[in-house]
Amino acid sequence: MKRLVKGDIDGFFGLALDNLVQVLLIETLCVGVLGFPETLIYGRILPGVAVSLLVGNLFYAWQARRLALRTGRTDVCALPYGINTVSLFAFVFLVMLPAKLAAQAAGDPDPARTAWRVGLVATVCCGLIEFAGAFVAERIRRATPRAALLSTLSGIALGFISLGFLFRTYARPVIGLTALGIILVTYFGRVKFKGGLPGGLVAVSAGTIIAWAMGIAPGAAAPTGAGLYLPVPAIGEVLSTFTSGGWWGYISVILPMGLFTLVGSLQNIESAEAAGDSYPTAPSLAVNGMGTVAAACFGSCFPTTLYIGHPGWKSLGARAGYSVLNGAFFTLVCLTGTFSYIAWAVPVDAGMAIVLWIGIVIAAQAFSATPREHAPAVVMGLFPALAAWGAMMAKNGLRAAGLGTPEHPFTEALVQAFHGSDTWIQGAFALEQGFIFSAMILAAATVAIIERKFVQASLWCIAGALLSAAGLMHSYRWTAGDTVIALAPAWPWAAGYAIMAVVFLAARWLTVETEGH
């Protein structure tokens, strides 16, 4: 297995673009929402991000080479790895922002630093949950039908990845459709440009040239933050904040985020196996958790995760080299602050077609890598993630209309307003919380029903009832500008799942088999 092949270049462009978006979000949210000074962002947070990305990417590249040597194959693709987008937003808005506001109210002379420290502890806790879960996750994987694992990823890919970037493609069609056309020709058409130029490089280059010609690039903000920023251990800040106990009030966010990341990473390992690359569950998840802990110990308050998209990178021809390139690139840009220059010169529009394509491949895999008769279960598993994406879009629309502020907060009255258009928005809000669990449960129960394993279907519904009763699914509460998991018993949904369990269990005695359907 060569250390670097042409497909690694395409894979690197896609994965690096995805991670670059996350780093840009970190800078934007830390400055605009949390009010963090540049010294904290460039001097502590981004060097911690560099440590976590380098550690994880090098391990997964080594893991891929080891699998290739053991099997004698040259088509092994490393597991993609990067910053957890969902946790990024959750930690900013539901952990660090409340911590900052509480510190301000208490007269703290440096509330931004206090919020950062709480974020570090939250990140450590999230990583420890991932690490501990690594040693039991394989049992969950073996007990869960592939349709249940892959359909959840498919729903996330369709909603949170593909549709979002499709909107942006058609918002700026000259750039977006040009890049998309190049990606479709080279990736789905299974052709390559003469001279061996990677399709991803051509698409990004063409999009960038058009953006500059149309005046969309360069970015409005001048590049800032260039310099040398070496990682500085933040273990002292973590320990002092942990012992103070001020972080405990955010456990209702930390616990679900840790479990969400654990299950999501587990599904990505299953996705890789469906694409032909079988990686051991325990070490893959354990290093993921260790990467998150390493991030916090060197100043990053944002967890990492095994990324969605392995089948896409593999079909591009990416192997182990793209993971090494990604780790090296982000070490460079995070330790020197040069990523601001990249964002200034290369607009996201130029590379989003690659990410859109990844979403398409993941969604397709859920159907192609599962038995044909399980297709209804795959569709069932799509619904919760799409509902969560729809809930997010609805709340974004409300915020754009001026709601979701301290002066005009979200309240229960919104539900009745939506009912006026026959939109049962509370169902979307309920599905949004813990959707990764409900998607697995619905899809797995449907697979069991298709195979007439009614007791097994009943057990999956009992799991749904227990998770709902524990407040890990469907339980939500209102904040000024959002609906968030409440970690309180969601009794109506627990009762609903329990009744479904009874129905499925009774089917053994109350029904007879029919053929031809």
Quick structural gist:
It contains 21 helices and four strands.
The share of residues in helices is: 55-70%
Largest sheet: 2 strands, antiparallel
Question: Whole-Å distance between the termini?
Answer: 48 Å
User: How many alpha or pi helices?
Assistant: 21
* Regions with little confidence, pLDDT below 50 for 5+ residues: none
Share of residues in strands: under 5%
Q: Which oligomerization state do the chains in this entry correspond to?
A: single chain
Number of domains: 2
Q: What is the mean pLDDT? A: 88
Outline type: globular
β-strand number: 4
Strand order of the largest sheet: 1-2
Topology order in helix (H) and strand (E) letters = HHEHHHHHHHHHEHHHHHHHHHEEH
How big is the Rg? 23 Å
Look at the helices and sheets and give the structural class.
Answer: mainly alpha
